[in-house]
Amino acid sequence: MPTLAELISGFDHDFLVPTGWTQGRTAYGGLTAALSVHAARLTAGDPLPPLKSAQFLLSAPVVDRASITARRLREGLSATSVAIETVSGGQVAAHASLIFATPRTSTIEHDLVETPPVPGPDESPVFTEPSAMRPAFVDNFDIRKAGGTSPMSNDGPPLFRAWVRHRGAEGVDRATALIALADALPPATTAAFTEWAPVSTMSWSLHICTDDLPKPTDWMLLESSSTFTRDGYSHQAMSLWDSARRPIIQGSQTVALFA
């Protein structure tokens, strides 16, 4: 099974989905998103500034073989926007809109992101034990439960907290590695399940809070909370902190569920 570092170093715009990076029959969404970020950085022109914002639409499965194309939409004084399409099975399977931006002088600053009190990763148990239902991609990460509930527990608010860390991401661009890591937990609405049913992330929006990003091999605290679920769709809020409890990513997802 190739590591993230190996996938990035051997990247080709036309590629086979590695079986060790799948969830069900499709590629892990975090990998599709991370490869989109990497493809954006390979576009012609001046080096891109730091990644600031990303929107991913995951419209169809990325199965077997896929191709990625990226183009710069606009390069302004401080921000560059890039569009990326992933095609698989003859259809657009994913679309990404990325904004790369340099810091600008501003008199306005606030941080209202509350960090939950949690034990450290060394004091936290594994998030889920290996099982036939666990997606293959999970083996690329260390995941330790730091609070909240568990999938199919149906015993409290649908909220997951976990320490997450890459296995094999040495040397990967920090933003790319973060995107690959930030989707590692199952949708939080699965905490309310009493038996397993299919789920699928439809859209993912995120904001990068700082340009001072942690190393790809560091522990990160990831929280996912389902705030509203009805009619077969769930909204979840997501936050990612580094080991010093600094907010790194704020995000949200819309998830389809078949339960």
From TrEMBL:
Q: Which Pfam families match?
A: 4HBT_3 (PF13622), 4HBT_3C (PF20789)
Top-level taxon in the UniProt lineage: Bacteria
Query: Which residue numbers delimit the Acyl-CoA thioesterase-like C-terminal domain?
Result: 121-256
The residue ranges of the Acyl-CoA thioesterase-like N-terminal HotDog domain are 18-100
- Give the protein's recorded name: Thioesterase family protein
- Organism, scientific name: Gordonia rubripertincta
